[in-house]
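Run log, item B.
One chain of 287 residues. Sequence copied directly from the ordering sheet:
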Amino acid sequence: MDNLTLTKYRHSGKFGLPAWLGATALAAAATLPLGFVYAYLIKWIPFVYANALLTAGYGLACGYLVGRLLKRAHVRNAKIALLSGLLVGVVALYANWNGHVHALISGAPWVCSLEGIWAIMQLLYEHGSWGLRHGGNVTGVFLAIVWAVEAGCILFFSVTMPGQFIAGMPYCEKTRRWLDQSQSYDTLEALGEPAALAALQEGNITPLLDAKPRPADARLFTRVVLKHSPQCQTFCTLQVQQVTLTPEKDGKLKEDSKDVSADLVLPHDMLETVRQFVSQPAPAPAS
């Protein structure tokens, strides 16, 4: 085929205000029990590295929850998803401290006021509640820096994950379905020619159709990602990635993938043709 250029997929940016508000409010409410779980795990597992992982996990859980609920609310706007993530992230910070106060103080209310939390923070700033292996409790500026890093980590994942979740999943406006089924094919050789890569970046898939099969032992190759939905018979999408496998000290191969093209709109009646083409197995290595 000559000059087969596909349109780059872009979200419509549409969303329903009541559904968006409901999804954001539900995600924010869910951070309250998550905050208790996070706070008590921090209390019961007093190890710095484990606590760092727990903080990242709490932020990831909040961000993932926002993304899933926005998907159910049919939000097709990455900026609105970021806004939801920010709002929920701020509530998640409150939920973290609310759970933290309850874990530290016997008889503390299940839902603390902001004034009460601020008073506890001032007390901890002066006296601390935990310390390093050598020395007394951590207090003052150093403790404030730890709090700031923790808050930044929670906000980072809460804000960025929903936008990435929405941006990476095409949506069919006609059938109101997400193209959430994805298959990856690693059967084509690496496309190293600058002209071929430039063409793919512009949506021209001719270099892809001219590519040879990937050698069985190749550590640099082309990946084709097809996204579709059984309920959408209008279109699917095709994305091209360049993949590099690098051996590590333990003998395992580390994968590094780089997007060559955006999600490209592929007519649904071409899905099986493209799938058959990229499903061809790589030839066996020469003996």
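Observations after the first pass:
- The longest strand covers residues 235-247.
- The two ends are 34 Å apart (CA to CA).
Flagged for discussion on Thursday.
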